[in-house]
Each structure stands twice: as C-alpha cells, then as structure tokens.
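Backbone-to-sequence.
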C-alpha cells in the first residue's frame, strides 16, 4: 500500500475499527472575524475564526436567502459536493512581553490539503440503523467560548499533546487516554491535535434553535460510541460530525519564552487561557441528497463511489479573502488579540 494510503487507513481505523466513517481534508478557506451563526451580520464579529468549506461563507447566511451549494463557486473540502462551512477559534501564543502570534495549522496525517481541518461524518456502530442527513438550512454549535470550567466542556471536545508530527505512539480514540479538556501544559513536540465532536441526535423539526444547541442532543443513555439510543425528545439519529485540527505549536516550544511561573502561554482567539472555551460551529451545505447517499451507502475515508471528489490542488485553490480586514498575527507580533482588549 502507498504510504499515504496506509497512514490514512491507520488513522481511520484508530478511531474505532467497527465504525463507518468518512474522514476527509478541507483546506483553509479563510481566517476572519466573521460568525454567521452566533453573530449574523456583525462585522467584525467579537473574535477571530478559522473557516473551511464553501466560498459562499459570509457574515450573514440566512437560510432561504443564502443557499451554499447554489452560491458557492468552490469548496476547500475534497468532497466537491460539500459546500458546508465548519469553523473554530484560532490559537495564539503570548510572548513574555505581552505580544501575540498566531499558531499555524498544518495538514493531518494521510491528507493532501493545506492547514484547515479534518472533517468526519460518523455513522456509528449500529451500521444498519438509518442515519438521517441534515436538512437544508441546518446549523449547530458545540462548546461555549465563555466557559472556563472543566466540567462544562462537553464530552468529545479535547486536546492531545502529540510527541511528534507522526502522532506516534498513537494515544487511543479521541478524548481518551491522556487527552485533556484544558490546553496542554507541556511543550508538545508534535503540536496539538484538537478534537471537536457534535451531538448525534436531532429533534427532527428545527434546523436551528436560539442557542444553536437545543435542537440537538446526546444519546439518552450510554454514548454514541456504545450505540446509545437517542432521547424521545430528539429521536432522529444524525451523522456524528467531528473536527480534528492540528495546531503546530513547535515554533513556540522554547521554555525560555514561556511564563516564568511555568504556566502555559497559549490563548484561544476569544481570550481564553484555559482551553475550556473550546467550541465549533457548523452550517450544513451539501448539494442535493449527496450526504444522504453517503450515509446510505456507508461511505468511508475521503473517496467514495456515491460522491464526487476533487483533487487536493483544487481544494487548496479555494480560498476567500478576509471580509473584516485586519492583521491576524501570522507573520508579525500583535499587541493584542484581534477584537479583544487583552
Ligand atoms: C455576502 O454579503 C454581502 C453583504 O451582505 C453581499 O453583498 C454579498 O453578495 C454576499 N456574498 C455572497 C457570496 O453571498
Ligand atoms: C516580543 O517578543 C517576541 C518574542 O520574543 C519578539 O519577537 C518581539 O519582537 C517582541 N516585541 C516587542 C514589541 O518587544
């Protein structure tokens, strides 16, 4: 087997051998102070995000007004019928003198895209059960940027301190083993692998809710992984969406640059120094019934008969310029986090 394919197969089977899962790369679409889910129409939004997916991404994405598969002309995801948008906060390093620099993202194992994220749609162990794809206009949020308590971080959101870029030895399924809900406290030789997992049950009616969460739920008992059934209030089993983001912290590993008291020097772009404000946003935008076909035919990996796949180069070429133009601290140090007073 080709090394790349081997690595991809290895990474996919790592998650859980018995699960059906799509795992594919999406290059960076843009990094922008825009949030059409929580702050629609607000330009700039309160904090910076890193975004992947269809290039119809905009400050406002009102269902019925903006239809991502119709209005996008490209997507940064390798499945070319996926014009959804996926985003999280950015990570910054704070130097001893108080300046900030953005921690770059890098490609995950076995994928050929640039920066961005790895996206999973997981059917789960009960492979015979019907999994219902999201309807047009569907969107959701997991986690909370204002949270500063470990016990309020939902399960399935976590940090893994990687020893090296090969992510070896493998640390087990996401959010198990030594994975943490807080930012890693040590300097990590392979950066961080950050996992953001959404709930897998839906009320079957609402495409959104005021908190962007109440229309979705976790299984009533057990977990998604153990095949737990959905609660009666949210009876519809949806794909479990999961993001993996590799933040390459290596250029910031010199202990001499870390705070003298030994505390860790990283911040989410919303000013959180604990990591507990970890969150992810999702706006559905698959073309037609492509995602339903993918679920019904049990697509796996990043190539599937039921779906169209574009080249990695085409995914990489799909970018969008900043809407809220500002310096984001990629090459030079910033006196404060974009949009924040700290
Ligand atoms: C994005 O929003 C702006 C302003 O609301 C609008 O002019 C523009 O056409 C939108 N772009 C897309 C791709 O929908
Ligand atoms: C702050 O510290 C960083 C990292 O050591 C350094 O590169 C930068 O020049 C410093 N900035 C100022 C304004 O002193």
């Amino acid at each position: 087997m080709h090394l790349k394919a081997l690595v991809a197969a290895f990474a996919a089977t790592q998650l859980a051998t018995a699960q059906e899962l799509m795992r594919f790369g999406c290059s960076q679409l843009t990094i922008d102070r825009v949030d059409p889910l929580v702050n629609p129409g607000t330009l700039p939004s309160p904090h910076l995000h890193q975004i992947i997916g269809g290039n119809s991404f905009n400050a406002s994405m009102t269902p019925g007004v903006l239809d991502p598969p119709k209005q996008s002309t490209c997507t940064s995801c390798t499945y070319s019928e996926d014009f959804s948008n996926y985003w999280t906060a950015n990570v910054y390093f704070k130097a001893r003198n108080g300046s900030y620099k953005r921690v770059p993202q890098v490609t995950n194992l076995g994928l050929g895209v640039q920066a961005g994220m790895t996206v999973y749609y997981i059917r789960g162990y009960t492979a015979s059960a019907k999994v219902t794809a999201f309807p047009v206009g569907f969107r959701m949020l997991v986690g909370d940027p204002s949270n500063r308590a470990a016990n309020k971080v939902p399960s399935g959101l976590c940090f893994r301190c990687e020893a090296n870029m090969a992510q070896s030895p493998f640390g087990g399924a996401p959010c198990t083993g030594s994975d943490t809900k807080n930012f890693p406290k040590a300097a990590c030789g392979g950066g961080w692998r950050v996992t953001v997992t959404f709930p897998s049950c839906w009320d079957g009616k609402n495409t959104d809710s005021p908190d962007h969460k109440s229309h979705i739920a976790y299984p009533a008992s057990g977990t998604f992984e153990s095949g737990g059934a959905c609660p009666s209030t949210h009876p519809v089993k949806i794909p479990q969406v999961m993001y993996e983001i590799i933040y390459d912290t290596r250029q910031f590993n010199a202990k001499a640059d870390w705070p003298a008291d030994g505390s860790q020097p990283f911040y989410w772009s919303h000013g959180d120094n604990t990591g507990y404000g970890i969150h992810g946003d999702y706006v559905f935008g698959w073309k037609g019934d492509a995602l339903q076909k993918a679920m019904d035919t049990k697509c796996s990996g990043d190539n599937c008969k039921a779906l169209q796949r574009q080249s990695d180069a085409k995914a990489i070429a799909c970018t969008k310029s900043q809407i809220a133009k500002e310096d984001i601290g990629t090459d030079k140090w910033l006196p404060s986090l974009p949009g924040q007073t700290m």
